[in-house]
Structure formats: structure tokens, C-alpha cells
Design goal:
Length: about 270
């Protein structure tokens, strides 16, 4: 097993996913459904079975058929894990109620850590200047270039539409038909989750603020630091800064067992 695979396996224990598939061939990142589900199941440590029950039995998302409910649960579980034993979802839930304005970015960061297609398209979308047009055709070309011939023309079109819709839900794009690059709304909770994802991936100190995760925040190093300091004042994370040395810790979020795994990893 190569080093990257070993690293990925360790991250999978925390809720990351590196499966080749991905929800976006069928659906978007489903922000509205996630909001409805997390307000229906409003207990932070609810088990995965409780989310299944809410969707399937209570039909909290108002789906017409049993089959649609089953599929909806599967897609949401693929995107967000819906399992409090996994750090990625537990952290999402921690910030979800505490930082309502951050919900679009919180969901996007969680989906980014679990959906390879969303992850693959991030450099493409984030590379556009604010106000630039991002077309469906451009997204189709980008997707096809990643793995030429993987998708049929019809699947390529619907997948590109779904992905552009997800980047719109997250705040990185704006517009219904014509999509333009917008600036996502970064918040203390979203910054904290981005730093946590970087931290468990092995980053420390200043490099935590310059990761692929913090790039999703659409703000500068200084702005990210200010948001993190705000989160630290609120007691969500712990941030210490002495001159150029920055230490960020997550005592509320990472369990002793997970810290043990991270020590092995490093």
C-alpha cells in the first residue's frame, strides 16, 4: 500500500471519503434537505439510524415514495456521513447550530471532504475571478478532461449542472441560469471546520491557514486568522499566537481515540 493510500485510510476513520463514485452524477449537495433533516433530528449525538428513521418513517423531507426516501438517505449519508462516531459529521453538527450563517460553507466543506467530484472541481471553480461567468459547458469540458470518456454526453451534462448548482448553494457561484463567480460568506464556524480538516490531514501552524480547505473560505490569510480568533474567543477552538508562531487545537471536537490515531499518522 503506498503512502497516499495509507494516509487516506486513516482519514476515512475520521469520516473522509475517497470512493471513486459520488452523489453528483444524480444530485446536488442537497443543502435544503440537509437543513430540514438537521432541524428535524435536533439532537447532536443522534445515531445514524435516527436519521434513517426520520427520512424513511417520519418522512421529514416529504418524499413521495419509499424508494425515493431510501435514495435520499443514501445520498445524504454519502455526502455528510450522518454518523456522530465520525469526526467530520460530528464537527459539522457542532458548528451547525452555533453558526447558522455559516451553514452553506459548513455543508460544502463536509461534502468536499467526502465527495471526490466536488473536490476535483474545486480548483476549477475557485480559480475564476469574482464576476467571471462559469458555464455548464466549461464544467463539462473540465470533468471530461479528468477522465476522458467516463461519462456519456447526457450524464456529463446533468453532472455539470448538479456540480454548478452545489457551488451555487455554497455561495461560490451566483445566478440561476447564468452562473457567475461570487464570494462565499466565511464565518467563524466555517473557518474552524476548514482548519480542523487541515489539522487532521496533517497540517500545523501557519500552513493550516493556506490549505485546500481554507481556500474554500474565499478570504485572505489575515481574514481567516481573524475568524479563527473569533471562534477561539467563543470557546469553539483554541488558538494561540506568539509572533509568527500559531497553534490551533480542537479540544471540543477531537476525541482522545482520534488524537491517538493522529499521533500514529504523524
Amino acid at each position: 500500500m503506498n503512502v497516499e493510500n495509507k494516509h487516506n485510510n486513516k482519514l476515512e476513520r475520521l469520516g473522509f471519503s475517497f470512493e471513486r463514485g459520488g452523489v453528483h452524477t444524480a444530485r446536488t449537495m442537497m443543502l435544503a434537505e440537509l437543513r430540514d433533516l438537521l432541524s428535524f433530528v435536533d439532537v447532536a449525538n443522534a445515531a445514524r439510524a435516527d436519521y434513517l428513521d426520520a427520512i424513511q418513517t417520519a418522512n421529514c423531507l416529504g418524499k413521495r415514495s419509499g424508494k425515493t426516501r431510501t435514495l435520499t438517505f443514501r445520498h445524504l449519508a454519502d455526502l455528510y456521513a450522518l454518523d456522530p462516531s465520525l469526526l467530520v459529521f460530528r464537527a459539522l453538527r457542532f458548528f451547525w447550530q452555533r453558526d447558522v450563517d455559516g451553514q452553506p460553507l459548513l455543508a460544502a466543506l463536509c461534502a468536499y471532504s467526502r465527495d471526490p467530484m466536488l473536490r476535483a472541481t474545486a480548483p476549477f471553480v475557485l480559480g475564476f475571478q469574482e464576476g467571471a461567468t462559469v458555464t455548464r459547458e466549461g464544467m463539462e469540458e473540465f470533468l471530461d478532461a479528468q477522465e476522458p470518456g467516463r461519462f456519456s454526453k447526457a450524464t456529463l451534462k446533468s453532472t455539470a449542472q448538479n456540480i454548478n448548482s452545489s457551488w451555487t448553494q455554497s455561495g461560490h457561484l451566483a445566478g440561476r441560469v447564468r452562473k457567475v463567480r461570487a464570494r462565499a460568506v466565511a464565518t467563524p464556524g466555517a473557518a474552524s471546520l476548514a482548519l480542523l480538516l487541515g489539522y487532521v490531514s496533517g497540517l500545523r501552524g501557519e500552513s493550516l491557514f493556506k490549505s485546500d480547505y481554507t481556500r474554500m473560505l474565499d478570504c485572505s490569510f489575515e481574514q481567516t486568522l481573524e475568524l479563527a480568533e473569533d471562534a477561539s474567543r467563543r470557546g469553539w477552538i483554541s488558538l494561540k499566537r506568539v509572533g509568527q508562531v500559531i497553534e490551533v487545537l480542537f479540544p471540543n471536537l477531537i476525541t482522545a481515540q482520534e488524537m491517538e490515531w493522529l499521533r500514529e499518522q504523524n
